[in-house]
What we know:
The complex is a heterodimer of chains A (229) and B (285).
Chain A: E1 9-14, E2 17-22, H1 27-33, E3 53-57, E4 64-68, E5 78-80, H2 104-108, H3 120-124, H4 131-139, H5 143-149, H6 158-162, H7 169-184, H8 189-199, H9 204-212, H10 215-223
Parallel strand pairs in A: 1-5
Antiparallel strand pairs in A: 1-2, 3-4
Helix pairs in contact in A: 4-5, 4-7, 5-7
Chain B: E1 2-6, H1 16-29, E2 32-35, H2 57-69, E3 73-76, H3 79-94, H4 96-105, E4 117-120, H5 121-128, E5 143-146, H6 168-175, E6 179-180, H7 194-197, H8 199-215, E7 220-223, H9 226-234, E8 248-250, H10 251-258, H11 275-280
Parallel strand pairs in B: 1-2, 1-3, 3-4, 5-6, 5-7, 7-8
Helix pairs in contact in B: 1-10, 2-3, 3-4
Amino acid sequence: MTDTIKTRMIKVYIMGKEYDVPEGLTIMKAMEYAGYRFIRGAGCRAGFCGACGTIFRKKDEYKFKTALACQTPAEDGMYLTELPFVPANKAEYELEELASGPNIIVSLYPEIARCVSCNTCTKACPQDLQVMDYIQASLRGDIEQAAELSFDCLQCGLCAARCPADIVHYHVGQLARRLYGKFILPKSLHLKERNDEIEAGVFDQEMENLTTMDLDQLKKSYIERDIEK
Amino acid sequence: MKIPYYPGCTLKTTAKPFEDTTKAVSEAVGIELIEMPRWNCCGTVYSLASDDLMHQLAPIRNLIRVQDMGYDRVTTLCSMCYNTLEQANQLVKSDPEKLEKMNSFMDQEEDYTGGVTVVHYLTVLKEMGFDSLPVKNPLKGLTVVPYYGCLLLRPEEISIDNPERPTVMAELLTSLGATVVDYPYKLECCGSYHTVNHKEVVCEKTYHILSSARKRGAEAVVLSCPLCEFNLDFRQKDLEQELAPMPILYFSQLLAISLGLFDALEFDQHYVDPKPLLKEKGLLR
């Protein structure tokens, strides 16, 4: 007789069908254990890419919940589904041709004026961002605040999928950050100086030396390098 | 006096001079405006449908933010914001069932208790007393008319003054040294959002209001609403009838002039430039 550590199994319901899966898996892994393959709706599996936004419900709760499938543990009695993609509207624009002004965001995404401040987007955000607040900031032309509040957005699209006003928050936030970067953030002068130096060939010889060095020499010069304090 | 200040979207964009002059005036007269750190659109246009609570969320959420700040009053400048916030406020104060429903929907906020009152900035000034304003540069020789429009006065329940015969702006302007004349269109609607799809409606209104004011001798029209400002000012370029350009000013701009706060003035966002008139009267430095 051999001792085996018995994994406790939980029941989940995927697209309405019951499965037994081991406890402790993420929603994504639980679904894969049950035989589903993620062709879309999966990416980095580390909570950074935003591809695996999903919707679920817990046992005996009436509320729909949203999460990243790769970051959220499956629980006993959960109702799960695949949400491969959010087919949200995306405005087309040439950033170089845009002018920064108070109405620039609302002119590209006029539906933000339909926001009734219901806050459903904020509740849906797996990154816990103040989504409604950045839409409101966009509406009043406060690009800086919209950019800052949306900074940690992963573009999963759950906000847009839940919005009763059909706003595409994550694309609005992306536009705000682009405008912020192009028109509002101070230009980094040292970067331009360094680029000019590189283009003028200041570092060519040093680069040449490094790429032609043998391994021992390379290790030695690495250990003996000057470390900037 | 300390009071939370709800700006509203327009005050941060096309009505920036309205806000800038008000801030300068407040500082000069000892009103400490505490700008709300977090706010959303007022709801723009109070929804008249009795079962449409979704459109009451925006104003009530703003009142929850005031409650969170620990205050029971909030002031605002834009007539539209004032009207929408206070009408929604009165709706939920008078209908506990609706308030309960909205509180239960906004389950991530503290419940709104109905303890906040929205006061227009004109009311705040009036409470302080127009006579107490430290006027340094009286508006001598300037003849103006106040224009109230709809939103400060209707419906009666939220009116900042007698809804049929308001005097608050005339009293303020008189105490600043201006000559105020009366005319029959001070309560007329400017045409509001018809300006988007039916600008001819607004042009007709604008013409009636401004030509009447002109006939009574007014040299400028004074108001408190960014939408009225746009309609009465910018629609002058689309008029079919002949009308000498009439400058449109926010009451706070004339307040700033009369208190000598010239650095706060900015007239770039007007269609009819008020500067020639103000210079002619010797009111600008």
